[in-house]
Write a structure and sequence with these properties.
292 residues, mainly alpha, two-stranded antiparallel sheet, 3% strand
Length: 292
């Protein structure tokens, strides 16, 4: 039973990262209609920002660490996202989705190649912050405090994002701006700025996930490439552009993957893709998606 609950915990943690990353992808695709393949590289950049801050940044003798990185890394990577959107992606909005996919895929390869050339392929350790070391003995399993923090924090971030987009006036402006930008602009709303900030927010979500993942998976130039294919499968299963679909499917598939590792380990690396095939055969728009 301890092994079973241990795998469930691992699946829940993986699901937390699947949910956060697929949420960023869903926000960008749902509001901008861009299939953003740089998302894995942005996730990696968030982890590296946290590592750089931990290694070298001192302010007035105070050493910046993990907690500062949770704020600084999303801002830095979000600013990089603005640069990408303003210089490259804005030229592709009226073209087929394939052009955006090819551009972002190539950009992701460039970013990963630069970091791999500089830092190599091996991972660099990132210590768990002292406040979150240790854990709780629940009787049936031992729960590391940091992993519990990751699950809770990701749930808060995911559902706060859903609430803003689906239940607030700002979210209604965002959705209206993608469906009828001319009409929304007629009401005095700066739609291009709104689009840019939306992409920056999606990039910041990826960076936040990268910071949270650093103490668990280590910091590596290829950490984004290892997870992005699975995250795309999660988005497809949940429904392209569906915010709630990304959240629910991310956590659910992480748990299913954890259970598969316990009951049938040989299938743990393919179970998500098998589910994707089945869902696409039965409901091509995804579990939470809408037919267009």
């Amino acid at each position: 039973m301890q092994a079973l609950f241990g795998q469930l915990l691992v699946g829940l943690i993986n699901g937390a990262f699947y949910a956060m990353l697929s949420l960023g992808l869903a926000v960008i695709f749902g509001l901008l209609n861009i299939i953003n393949f740089t998302h894995g590289a942005l996730y990696m950049l968030g982890a590296f920002c946290a590592w750089f801050i931990l290694q070298s940044v001192h302010i007035g003798g105070f050493h910046l660490g993990y907690w500062s990185s949770l704020i600084i890394a999303p801002i830095v990577v979000g600013a990089f996202g603005i640069l990408i959107e303003r210089t490259m992606l804005k030229r592709l909005y009226k073209l087929d989705h394939l052009y955006g996919l090819l551009l972002t895929f190539g950009l992701a390869l460039v970013i990963q190649g630069v970091f791999r050339n500089e830092f190599g392929s091996s991972g660099m350790p990132y210590d768990i912050p002292p406040l979150l070391t240790g854990g709780f003995n629940l009787g049936f399993m031992f729960l590391p405090l940091y992993r519990g923090w990751v699950v809770v924090a990701s749930l808060v971030v995911c559902f706060a994002t859903w609430y803003v987009i689906e239940r607030t006036k700002l979210g209604s402006y965002l959705r209206a701006g993608t469906e009828n930008p001319a009409l929304v602009q007629a009401f005095g709303i700066n739609v291009p700025l709104m689009v840019t900030l939306t992409f920056a927010f999606g990039a910041a979500l990826a960076a936040l996930a990268g910071v949270m993942a650093a103490p668990i998976y280590q910091v590596s130039p290829m950490m984004g490439a290892d997870i992005i294919i699975v995250v795309f499968a999660v988005v497809v299963i949940g429904g392209m552009g569906s915010i709630m679909g990304a959240i629910v499917t991310g956590f659910s598939l992480g748990i299913i993957e954890g259970l598969t590792k316990y009951f049938y380990p040989e299938a743990s690396t393919t179970v998500i893709f098998v589910i994707m095939v089945i869902v696409l055969m039965l409901k091509p728009a995804g579990l939470f998606g809408k037919e267009r």
